[in-house]
Amino acid sequence: MNRKPVIVAWSGGKDCTMALREIELGGEYVPVALLTTVTSGYDRISMHGVRRSLLEAQAASLGVPLHEVSISPSADNQEYESKMDAALAALRAATPAIAGVVFGDLFLEDIRAYRESMLARVALPAIFPLWKRDTRELAAQFTGLGFRAAVVCVDSTALERSFAGREYDASFVADLPRGVDPCGENGEFHTFVYDGPLFADPVAHVHGDVVLRDERFFFADLLDPATPRRGVASGAEAAGREGA
């Protein structure tokens, strides 16, 4: 059977990684692009604050081409959507047979409806391979499979500063306060996956400072050993729509 080409909405985090794993194993789809929003000037993944160089190293290790969408630091939904429309049109022109866009969303109905509405404008379906999966079971599966991730952003309204920069593992999940989703589906935290079964090689990085931005978000900076250090991106960018 010929596998259908798809785009994977990519944040670098665990949920989109598990969605990628699902389609890789399922046999119906083949990923032809990882689509990521990057904040111009900061050169970091929007909302997650991970450096662009680490994102590129991650995509190279996964062996899937990376397609970056640059948005301004003050981007609103109109800018985000117009640039995503243009990116999807370009990818579709390059691969006319694209069957849809894969998302790692788990249970938020409003986010799913938003994605489906946005993709309807370019006549592409949204694909949700993890939809309605039990998040505690998914968290255990992620770590049990040998994936490794760092917690790079924490919402201080949900978690203390000490959670930022930790490994996303069974201990982290066990320490989460009551009411915090084990996969951070409500935006409580975001992750960066740097190793695991899909990776040819681990993504080299070292931990930097943990800083508070916008009086709300703690960002744990991951440093690329091969590039100079720069400031941590603000958490105020629009988007943050690619997952945890």
In short:
The chain has six helices and ten strands; from the N terminus they run βαββαβαβαβαβαβββ. The chain is an alpha/beta fold.
Tell me what the structure shows.
By secondary structure, this protein is α/β, with parallel strands linked by helices. It is 29% helix and 24% strand. The protein has helices at residues 14-26, 52-62, 77-94, 109-120, 135-144, 170-175; strands at residues 4-9, 29-39, 44-45, 66-71, 101-102, 126-127, 148-155, 189-195, 206-213, 217-223. The strands form two sheets. Strands 1, 2, 3, 4, 5 and 6 form a six-stranded mixed beta sheet that branches. Helix 4 links the parallel strand 5 and strand 6. The longest helix is centred in the middle third of the chain and has 18 residues, at 77-94. The chain is globular and about 45 Å long. Mean pLDDT is 92; it is low at 231-243.
Which characteristics define this entry?
244 residues, alpha/beta, six-stranded mixed β-sheet, four-stranded antiparallel β-sheet, 6 helices, disordered C terminus
